[in-house]
Specification:
This protein has helices spanning 23-37, 55-68, 84-99, 106-123, 148-165, 182-197, 212-219, 223-226, 237-249, 257-267, 271-284, 292-315, 320-332, 339-346, 350-362, 381-388, and strands at 44-48, 72-77, 170-175, 202-208, 227-228, 337-338, 366-367, 373-376. It is α/β, with parallel strands linked by helices. Helix 6 (182-197) links the parallel strand 3 and strand 4 (202-208). The longest helix has 24 residues, at 292-315. The protein binds adenosine-5'-triphosphate and magnesium ion (MG).
Length: 396
């Protein structure tokens, strides 16, 4: 059928035509944010899940929901190479400038902007990548100690005071939180702890890979009590079916039952895969209904497309040994696997592979569900590794 009208949307952070199966979480977030705005104790929310399960689109949808309810938001993505203060500062400034338009909040918001100026100036030595416009001169003593943990706390506190004056809340939406360095994560947790203790309307909604809760716990032992960690996973069958059928039905196209069952089976309900299969099934079909035969033809194309994009982008950043490590894991199956078994498969000592494993965790390719266990962060990655490093001689 006509690719121009194809409704499906595979892609990193691309809003799906139908955000299926996430109503409960949206409601949980709505309640949390209303509680924050009302100055009631509320936990921050950190959504964790594998690659491609829909964390980013959910984060963006929650942000839209919040803004529609008149809540102030900012949105950043933690990159691998920049500091947290550097990415936060410009967004915080924008939020404070918006708050300063409110008559009641104006004075406090301006004070917070002074705090931001002091924050950026004093931390510039340590985090040279901080670049932010100054609207006011710093206020001596406000968030300008040059110590991130202390200064971020002071800054979020005065920001919270401004939000409260404006009768709203400020929500920090942060994607890819697992990339934030541990000391900076610790500072963020402390700052949020402080605002929570003082019932300041500032809260975090974050997203990250499954290693995030463990990393937060290591950064600050009380982090687990401060945050909820909802698991974002593959869609249950009903939601997965809806993700496929609804967008088509809106355009007058239906799927045969067998076609639908096959898509659910092939994708295991993983959102990224659902979009990819939906897209190719639509493109190869001659018309409605889309049949099992269409889906069979679409499968080869969907896998080829995933290999070229979703899977491939992760692989290009790896060293040859890191690739072999993943290939050895694939040899053992979907996982999780014991480090000892992986090492044995590679014919090397476990201790010698420690740094390789650590690097793969830092790069977000694998994580450790429990001590000594290793699992992929990308669904179906084992099959991909076998496709691109086929045969027996991958370990030579
Ligand atoms: N609830 C859903 N229903 C249908 N499709 C979805 C849903 N959630 C996400 N998708 C689709 O899945 C794909 C991946 O979504 P997204 O980029 O948000 O995943 P992610 O978890 O952030 O992945 P990564 O860890 O790689 O950043 C997108 O094409 C999106 O449209
Ligand atoms: Mg994402």
């Amino acid at each position: 059928m006509d690719p121009v009208s194809n409704p499906y949307a595979p892609g990193a952070g691309t809003q799906p035509p139908e955000l299926a199966g996430r109503e409960e979480l949206r409601e949980t977030a709505r309640i949390a944010l209303e509680r924050v705005r009302a100055g009631r104790p509320t936990k921050s929310i950190l959504m964790v899940g594998l690659r491609g399960v829909g964390k980013t689109v959910l984060l963006d949808r929650l942000r839209e929901d919040a803004e529609a309810a008149g809540i102030q938001t900012l949105r950043v993505e933690a990159p691998e190479s920049r500091s947290l203060p550097a990415i936060l500062a410009p967004q915080l400034r924008q939020a404070l400038l918006r708050l300063s338009l409110n008559e009641q909040a104006k004075d406090v918001a301006q004070r917070a902007l002074r705090g931001l100026a002091g924050f950026a100036k004093s931390l510039k030595l340590k985090y040279q990548d901080i670049e932010v416009g100054f609207d006011f001169d710093p206020e001596p003593g406000l968030a300008d100690n040059g110590d991130l943990e202390h200064d971020l706390q002071a800054l979020l506190e005065v920001t919270g005071a401004a939000a409260r004056k404006a009768g709203t809340a400020l929500v920090l939406f942060v994607d890819e939180l697992q990339y934030v360095a541990e000391d900076q994560l610790a500072a963020l947790i402390t700052a949020l702890h402080r605002t929570a203790q003082r019932n300041m309307p500032v809260v975090l909604i974050g997203a990250g890979l499954p290693q995030l809760p463990g990393k937060m716990g290591r950064a600050k032992s009380y982090a687990e009590r401060l945050f909820d960690f909802p698991q974002i996973g593959p869609l249950p069958t009903d939601a997965a079916r809806l993700a496929i059928t609804k967008p088509a039905a809106d355009l007058g196209v239906i799927f045969s039952e067998a076609a639908l069952d096959r898509i659910i089976g092939e994708t295991h309900g993983y959102p990224y895969f659902l979009q990819e299969w939906g897209k190719h099934a639509w493109n190869v079909a001659d018309g409605s209904p889309i049949t099992l035969h269409d889906v069979e033809r679409a499968t080869a194309r969907a896998i080829a497309a995933l290999d070229e994009s979703f899977f491939r982008v992760r692989l290009d950043r790896l060293t040859p040994l890191e690739k072999r490590y993943l290939r050895a894991m694939a040899e053992l199956g979907p996982g999780p696997h014991r480090s000892g078994d992986i090492a044995a498969r590679l014919g090397r000592e476990v201790t010698k592979l420690g740094p390789t494993r650590s690097q793969l965790i830092v790069k977000g390719m694998i994580w450790s569900p429990s001590h000594g266990d290793t699992a992929f962060t990308v669904p179906l990655f084992d099959e991909f590794m076998k496709r691109i490093m086929p045969g027996e001689d991958w370990n030579r």
